[in-house]
Amino acid sequence: MKNDNNHVSIGLLNPKSASNVAVILRAAGCFGVSSIFYTGSRYTHAKAFHEDTKKIRNLIPSTAVDDLLSALPQGATPVVIELVEGATPLPAFVHPKNAYYIFGPEDGSVPQHIVNACEHVVYIPTKTSMNLAVTANVVLYDRLAKSDYEKGDDLIRQSRDVNNNVKVTRA
What is a biological process (GO) this protein takes part in (predicted)? Predict the structure, then answer.
C-alpha cells in the first residue's frame, strides 16, 4: 500500500483451527498487517503450523492477551467482523486508517460486550457463514481495494512466487 499512515491490527478471539490461523498469517503478510493479538490457547499450536509457508509468524508480532479490547493499539479504531443484526455490510463500509479488526472463533460468536465496545460492526453479505481465514482475507482485500494501493509490474514482480515469470503478451 502507498500510504504508510495506515495501520492494521487483527484480534482473533480463541481461533479454533491451526490451518485457518496459518492462512490468516499469510494474508497478514500480504496485506500489511502490523500486529496480531489473540485469546485462548488454540492459537499457540497454529504458530508452528506448516501452512504458513512464508514464515510470516516470524515477521509480524503475535501476542497472547486475556482480553482483545485491552490490546487495542494506540489510536486504532476497533471494528468487529461478525454476522450481527444491525451491522454494516462490508461493501458499504469505509475502513478507518488505523483499524483493529476483531474476528470471532469458527465455532462461536464475538461476545456482546465486545460488539458493544467497538465503533463499527461489519458483516460480509453471504448466503452462509464463511470460515475465519476466508473472512479475514475478504476484509483485508476489501480494505486494499478501497485504498490508493500501489499498482503495476514492479509490485507484481515483488509479490509473486519465484516460480512465476508469466507475462501478458498480445500478438
Answer: tRNA nucleoside ribose methylation
